[in-house]
Each structure stands twice: as C-alpha cells, then as structure tokens.
Structure prediction request, 314 residues.
Amino acid sequence: MHLNMGGRDVAILSRHFAVTSSQSVNGVVSGMFQHTVTSSPSFTTNQILKMKFTAAIATAILASVAVAAPQRGLEARLTARGTSKGSRPLQAVARPASTKNQTNVEYSSNWSGAVLVEPPSAAATYTAVTGTFTVPEPTGNSGGSQAASAWVGIDGDTYGNAILQTGVDFTVTDGEASFDAWYEWYPDYAYDFSGIDISAGDEIVAIVESYTSTTGIAIIENKSTGQKVSKELSSSSSLGGQNAEWIVEDFEENGSLVNLVDFGTVTFTGAVAKAAGGESVGLTDATIIEIEENGQVVTDVTIDSDSEVTITYE
Prediction:
C-alpha cells in the first residue's frame, strides 16, 4: 500500500488525533469504557490478534509518513526560503564616475530607496515604520530567474547588527511572474507569510514595529483583497532603532545577490517612521540610496514629498 501524503496532510492528521485525544480526556473514552462494561462484548482469539495486527500496521504507517513525507507546495517553499533567502544590511559602494547632480545620495550594490540614517535624538530611537505601495509588474529576461523585493524596515544602514523588516518579493522565472509576502529579523533568514495572495497591481500596506529591542511585529495587508497577516518576532540580535527605511532590494539567495529584475516603478506613499515617545518622522531629511551595478547606476530615486518616495528601474 502506498500513501501519498504530504507534510500538510500529516499536520492535519496530527491535529485530528490531537483533537480526538483531547475529546477522550473530556469523557469520550470513559463513556466508551462504560459502554463496554455494560454490553460486555466477547471477542475470539483470532479477532483480538487481528485487531492488534491492524493497530500495529496503522502505527507503522503513521510513523513512516511523519518521518519520510515529501514537502510540497507552500511548505517546501517556506523551508527553502528559510534556509537560503534573506536581506542584507546596506552594502555601500564607491560613488560612480557619472552621477546625478544631487546631494544626500549614497550608492549601494543591493539597496535603493530612502533611509533615515539617524533618529531624532539619542532617546527617541525608531520603533515603527510604515509604507504603502502598489505591487509592480516585473519584466524579466527570456531565460533564467530575476527578482527584487520592496520592503519597510528598522535598521540596516548605519546600524547593521539587526534589521526588522517586511515586504513583498517579485520574481520572474522564464517569463512568469510570482509574488511572495515575507518577514525577517536579520541576521535570521526571511520567511514567507501564508494565508495571503499577492498579484501585480495590488495595494500593499507594510508595517514593522518593535516592542523592545529584541521583540516586535511584522504586518502585511493587501488592501485590494482584504487579506491581512502578521507575525510577532523575537531575536537575540538587538535593534538599535537608528535607521528607518523604504527600500527596493536586490536581495541575497544562496550566498549571492539575485539577478535584479526590471521592476518598473515602486512608489511608497504614507511613508512614516515613529520614534520612541510617539514622534512621527517623514522623508524630508532622508538619504537617497541608489543601486550601482558594474559602475552603472540602475535605479532612479526621487523623494516626492515628506511621505512619498519613488524608486524606478533604469
């Protein structure tokens, strides 16, 4: 006999048995025993041996499923992401020979967007960041895979020990686009949310908030579908609350930067950071970050207002 059961089936089966066990504790089993005593059924030796054999086979099947079940679909993707994908702190690069005639601009191999590089005061460190963006329609090459990620976060620029962040990946593989919402507390890897669907054109609200330097929450809301997911996190790597950012990133997979996809344009609106004490901080004094590849600047960032920044692939 072959059972084609995946990890999710095992989890459902396990939950079923857990519920059955819980019900038993609440009197179901005792009721069965009472019924047995009352009716006093009798079994032949062959019947008893057959029941024991059947129970042993069932136990062996469940054990083999739990140990050897292949991972499929979302579960496999979650595991793969948890062991190979993630953001990195800003990787600064030298100013290229040809640049825009702008002040307050820095260059990076992996980040593009706007960063508040210091808090309002030593006591008023950043505790929350929010931003809203429309998921772009990325354009990839004919072969292979290209990707990028739009996110909001705390720390990672001047303070690189930890980053609390959440956002959406957009990937094109052999011409087909896919999207994933995720959360991360760097230096741990990123993990995908389940229970939310993302498509090009969806309006996404991304929020991170730190409760303490080692605990916090990541929230993604899809305004277009009404779906909302969140994850409370804790880490041994402490946030400093020194930076707040709104970024499109060339993220890392298996130790290397992915091939940056042409993501078109990503505009963060409602871009606001909160500092300890409740002060709201906008983008007026933010630093622009551009991605440079092989000596060429491949993004264009404009701060359109105190609460809006636009990142365009060039």
